[in-house]
Amino acid sequence: MTERLAEELGWGLAVVFRGYVKAADAVTEGLPGGHRGYQVLSAAARDEPGSQAALAARLGIDRTVMTYLLDDLVGAGLVERRLDPCDRRARLVAATDRGRAVLADLDRRFARAEQHILGGLAPEDQAAFRALLTRLATHVNGLDPVATACDAVADIGARTQP
Asked: How far is C-alpha 5 from the geometric centre of its chain's CA atoms?
């Protein structure tokens, strides 16, 4: 690698992003929906049960895709759809006990994967990197907002298609 390449922002971002995506794919292998399934399970376990439509909007997932994704997560025993006591036409999405246990394992695996990626930095540099990345991402999102990480990736894919 040439010195000039090592100093290019785009190269550095691409390499780190590629490493993160590979790690996230490995962590979520076997989980219905992969990383999106993790996002849905995480929201279902950590937030108040919300409607399927609200969950899809919050996570930036197409409503039709969300239906299939939830069907798969329900089939795996990770989430359940409950009748909304305030609106009998709506279904609330909530994590099952099994789903919470799987999520705890996934969280541990993500922490190890992130540590592997950031392992080239000293602990204080890891904290500084995370803080700087958060500040930079907030700034860039203010210039060109996207609602979710999925929207950002879709935008990148749309720009790189011939």
From this structure: 29
pLDDT in tens, 10-47: 888 889 999 999 999 999 999 999 999 999 999 999 98
Strands 50-51 and 87-95: antiparallel
Helix residue ranges per DSSP H, the chain:
3-6, 9-27, 34-46, 52-59, 63-75, 97-118, 123-143, 149-160
pLDDT digits over 78-94, tens only? Answer: 999 988 888 888 888 99
Identify any residues that bridge with 95 across adjacent strands, giving them in sequence order.
Answer: 79
The residue among 70, 77, 71 whose CA lies nearest residue 39 is 70
Helix (H, G, I), strand (E, B) or coil at 79: strand
Which residue type sits at 153? V
**8 A C-beta contact, residue 116 and residue 83:** no
Beta-carbon contacts of 31 under 8 Å, excluding residues fewer than 6 positions away, are 37, 38, 41, 76, 102, 106
Q: What is the percent of the chain where pLDDT is above 90?
A: 57
The answer to whether residues 66 and 56 touch, using CB atoms and an 8 Å cutoff, is yes
